[in-house]
Amino acid sequence: MPATTDPLLELGRLDGRLAHSPARVAWTIRARFEGAARSACNAGVPIDANHIEAWFAGSGLPPRSGEGRNDPLSVVAIVHYFLESLEPDRGPHARQVRRLLGSLIDPEREAAIWANADLVHYGPLWRALRRMAEEPDLEPTLASIGARMAEMGRLIDRSADHTRLVAWLPDGREIAFNHDHPKAWLAYLMVPAMLRRSGLSAHTLPSLVPRQKFLCGSAKEWTAAVADCIAEQAPAAYRSLCRMERDVGDLRTRFQRTRRSRLAEAAELRVALPSLTRNKLAIAVNVTPAGAGYLMRQLER
């Protein structure tokens, strides 16, 4: 990315195009997967957005859940925390995306099944950071966001003072945690929500999560991390949105929308969820599994 790139110009270009984009729902779904994947990488659990997409689409288990790896925490917990951090957005297409993804998978329930210990361990700190992100008086400047994140960094640093945390699982087992895993990822996943709350963007742009694993040392460094993230990722997100718009436009020409047919709706949904199974498609477009099978056969012709 050229050094002359203005992050606020790139942010405004992406945010403005998204406002009236025919692909805004599909793009927002994909952007949520990308933001969650970046948060997982920041937490030391490297995955790809495609792994999360396959999980939501019904084509696989939660990422890394069956690989027997000694991960510092579960991907399911990270996805839950990330998606919950976006929840203050009450925009119409954000609500549509939330309802759609919630019909496919309930991340909170999945986290309780796959990652209950991580909810116990990270939950209090995440809730405290979320309250800080939602506090008023954020100004529409990157410096204001950097200053708020510096406060978050100090809280994360203080949370590491305890040497050991003991909790009990539902089956009665005792589990102990050492505070030796980086927690900066909990602050960085708040960036999309803070960009919207500050007024720098009208929409939550979920993929704009800095690629950082450690805490910054000053408000100026936090500000630079956010600026670098926008300058690098907003142009890529803009290009992705343009590609999806072309795909959606082609689909709408090929599959005409009618009051009774769900074919066009199913086709657009598969732009964001290409691994969607028959049963998940049936849930998403409110048809029977047999009807979803017919739609999939029509789409593959």
Give a description of the structure.
The protein has 301 residues and is mainly α. It has one domain (7-254). The protein is built from 14 helices and 2 strands; from the N terminus they run ααααααααββαααααα. A two-stranded antiparallel sheet has the order 1-2. The model has no long low-confidence stretch (mean pLDDT 89).
Let me know the number of strands: 2
Order of helices and strands: HHHHHHHHEEHHHHHH
Helix run count: 14
Strand residue content: under 5%
Structural class assignment: mainly alpha
The chain-level mean pLDDT equals 89
Q: Give the overall shape, derived from the CA principal axes.
A: globular
The biggest sheet amounts to: 2 strands, antiparallel
Q: List low-pLDDT spans.
A: none
Cα-atom radius of gyration: 20 Å
Please state how the strands of the largest beta sheet are arranged side by side: 1-2
Helix content: 55-70%
Sum this structure up briefly.
With 301 residues, this protein is mainly alpha-helical. It contains 14 helices and two strands; from the N terminus they run ααααααααββαααααα.
Key phrases:
single chain, 301 residues, mainly alpha, two-stranded antiparallel sheet, 14 helices
Write the layout of secondary structure elements.
Layout: H1 7-19, H2 24-42, H3 49-56, H4 75-85, H5 92-104, H6 107-114, H7 116-134, H8 142-159, E1 164-168, E2 174-178, H9 185-188, H10 191-198, H11 219-254, H12 263-272, H13 278-285, H14 289-299
Antiparallel strand pairs: 1-2
Helix pairs in contact: 1-11, 2-3, 2-4, 2-5, 2-11, 2-12, 4-6, 6-7, 7-8, 8-11, 11-12, 13-14
